[in-house]
Amino acid sequence: MTDYGEPIGIVGSGSWGTALAQLAADAGHKVLIWTRSQEKADAFNSSHINSTYWPDHKLSEDISATTDLSDLASFAKFIIVVAPSHGFRETVSTLGEHLAGDHVLVHATKGIELETLKRMSEILKEETPAKRIGVLSGPNLAAEIMNGMPAAAAVASKFPEVVERAQSALTSNRFRVYGSRDMAGVEIAGALKNIVAICAGVVNGLELGTNTMAMLITRGAVEIQRFGMKHGADAETFSGLGGIGDLIATCMSVLSRNHQVGLRLSRGEKLEDVLGGLNRVAEGVRTVRAVHEMARRIKVDMPITWGVHSMLYEGADPKEVSGKLMSRQTKYEVDSYN
Amino acid sequence: MSEIEWRIPVSEDERGDIVSKVTDRVVAELMDSVSKSPENELEYIINDVLYHEKQRARSEGYSSEMKEELSFLKSATRGLSSSDDEKKELMLRKLVQHYAEDIAGHFDKKVYAFTTKILPIGLEAIFNVQSPDTLLSGFSHMPDLRARIAIRGNIDHVKEMARKGTIIVTPTHSSNMDSVVVGWAMNEAGLPPLNYGAGKNLFTNYLLSFFMNSLGAYKVDRRIKHSLYKDTLKYYSIVILEHGCHSLFFPGGTRSRSGTVEKKLKLGLLGTGLKAFINNLLAGKENPNIYVVPLTINYPIVLEGETLIDDYLKEAGKSRYIIEDDEFSKPFKTFKFASNLMKMESSMTLHFGEPMDLFGNIVDENGVSLDPRGRQVDVRGYVTNGAGEIVHDDARDAEYTKELGEAIKESFHRNTVVLSTHALAFTLFNMLRCDNPGSDLYRMLRFEGEGKKYPIKTVLPRLAALTDELLKLNNENKIKLGGPIRPGDCAQEVMYDALRFFSMYHTKPVVSRRSENIILTDLNLLYYYHNRLVGWGLEKCVSGRN
Fold it and tell me: For residue B152, what are the β-bridge partners?
């Protein structure tokens, strides 16, 4: 008879939500996924398959699904929320109706709410009674995780208990979870990496090579850190899994939507055609608008963000943007020396 | 005494029980830590006390009180290094009990009733022993404090919470008058008396000590720095809360030197609320809930204003945490302050914020916590672990207390009551700032402001712009308004009201009127009173710039 750890609830049955469910099952937990679709829930429960995202993967029998959030809230006190950022508030507000003070929420959604410029953890605080909140982020390409390849992530929370329970929920011999206290830093890094990923697509589209990609990733990490520290984040977070780790993985991922946006723009396609051709919006396209505005307000120098914003929203030519970035005044690499 | 029969905070009967509980808990906690970590030896803990007290004697001098203290310590710890663990534990117990006895208050219900009736006269009597003739001539009639001290806010809600559970009132802190004023206001509003830790330096004269005790104060000796004393203080607070004794903590820790509304809070004592609540739950207590009631105390002029701002500006506040030689300790100054203030109508305003739970959630009239969306929450869940057990968790609870601190700060912010002196000071100071863009603050205060003249006809429009903005903020529930600040054209009334206050008490008037001009006289105090309105982004409306 298997001894299971505490039951885990997952809100969101997309590619990453499902992968997290599999990780939790691998770590020895019974898992309940919430999905909007009854059809999907039935498929989960009968055949243990997510036919939309992972049709070729048989999921653990310890994973079941429901369309009822109150079921989920009764089943598990530890819940991972993986809803898309543009519908995040609505989803968690509904979830909040079924939660109690003893629920622990960890979100794995990367993005910033455009209308309010708030991070996902702030939305969890506003829309639910939960106080013990955390964020999970890292170089976690869902396809590789579903294929059993080793990976790691950071879980950040002000509550050590949340970190411990998240580590217990997900750690196995193929997935390591490292703790952090810096929620703001992990969330900001996770959201802003998508902007740099668009630029990575431009680098590949313009066939600029490995040196350019390395420069982009490095200087992209610097401006993400600069932005993050203005919001109270710790510098060290940006050297971690949620920071540079996630940034590298995302920029190297040529099939990602963000990458595709940058690639196709650099090859001369119009933005509306690029976006129309994707089945879902690339997060970076949304995030760059929010971050561009926030950076302007708090006067933070973010040249790559401005470059991406000008390509997406001001009609700038990617080659010209590249030229402008390369002709900026050089300074010391480390901000504190300037 | 009040309309409802309140629970007696700490009667003499309960006192012994509380002292003994505090002693048991502190000793138990320390014995537990000793058993878990070999390096935390009992002898080290006791030696730490001896070391700190000897250091204190060297720096403060060997007064009779200090000699007595050292003598006690010597006798209580004789033979420490050669004693076995059982004897060391007894020594520890003796030390803790000694501190608990020193801390514990001497509340008496009958004396409390008497004190609150005579407080208006008592305020004067406390600080200056006058002849009956002088005493009576100082007040031309019995001052009606109700006309001078406005008590506003969620009073009925607070009353209800005091019936349903235990309340911790957390006021802003500008003056040593605060605890006396709050003591009077609680009684006047039909609210229960509060237990609070008053600095031992405030018990300097017999009469003051008598009144402090009878109003519910327990003694906190801030000169003592060692952990054993701090632990004893912490457990004293926890135990009296568990006994249902309503309490008062100043979360700012000390009086605001700069005059701003508290931005940094000390969370040590605040955390005792959560500990007491969890203990209540574990003990199955019938009314386990503890509620926090933020309270803003808003003075048009502050008794110790000159000393406080001087201290802030000299940045000596760090080393002069206990200021003993300020205006509060000068009887004549205090008498002048109190009697002048009593002549003015609607002098000060106390505003009770919405009661909240220990996690920063607002509570409804039934004491049930509400989440940010107004949904009911059972707060026991917050202190439940993954296995469904109610437990203490220091790291978790420290974080909860930080969040409570943030909620209290937000309440302070939106329940600050703006008075005429703050408004005029803010207007004038920002006009001076606009005239000296980029100038260093200290230079501006010392060299560029004193004697500066502003025609009233230039001041009034700026003041009007400020009051308009304050009205907007008030409508958005971001600030409260007091005195003559109200809708309509009130700028002139506000200005004259402020000028009256500014001329009445401080060594020199903060500002004064000469013909059709306002002269800036005391720049430090102007800056001090202006600071009350920092944090709402009002500077641009006075400067006329975005």
Answer: B351
* CB–CB contact B393 A158 (8 Å): no
The yes-or-no verdict on residue B6 having pLDDT over 60 is no
Q: Do B384 and A158 touch (CB under 8 A)?
A: no
Q: Burial of B142 by CB count in 10 Å (0-12 exposed, 13-18 middle, 19+ buried)?
A: exposed
Provide the 8-state DSSP code for B448: I
Contact B382 A93 (CB under 8 A): no
DSSP state of A8: E
Nearest to B497 by CA among B510, B508, B483: B483
Predicted confidence band of residue B134 (pLDDT cuts 50, 70, 90): very low
DSSP assignment of A140-180 equals --HHHHHTT--EEEEEE-S-HHHHHHHHHHH-BTTEEEEEE
Complete DSSP assignment for A182-195 = -HHHHHHHHHHHHH
How far, in Å, are A127, B387, B446 from residue B440 at the CA level? 44, 58, 10
Return the percent helix, strand and coil in chain B, to nearest 5. 55, 10, 35
Residue A55 CA, chain-centre distance (Å), reads 23
The share of chain B scoring above pLDDT 70, in percent, equals 81
- Phi first, then psi: what are they for A119, rounded to 5°? -85, 165
A74-103: pLDDT as tens digits: 999 999 999 988 899 999 999 999 999 999
Q: Is A193 an active-site residue?
A: yes
Query: Around Cβ B3, how many Cβ atoms within 10 Å?
Result: 7
Distance separating alpha carbons of residues B340 and B498, to the nearest angstrom:
14
Q: At what angle do helices B331-343 and B109-127 cross, to 10 degrees?
A: 100
> Given 3-state DSSP classes, what are the helix, strand and coil percentages for chain A, each rounded to the nearest 5?
55, 15, 35
Q: CB contact, 8 Å: B381 with chain A?
A: yes
Rg of chain B (C-alpha set):
25
Show the tokens assigned to A338. Answer: 């300037």
Q: Indicate the pTM of the whole model.
A: 0.89
Q: Does the beta carbon of A289 lie under 8 angstroms from any beta carbon of chain B?
A: no
Mean pLDDT of B290-308: 92
Q: Hey, which residues does B541 pair with through a beta bridge?
A: none
B179 neighbors B198 (Cβ within 8 angstroms): yes
State whether residue B513 is helix, strand or coil. strand
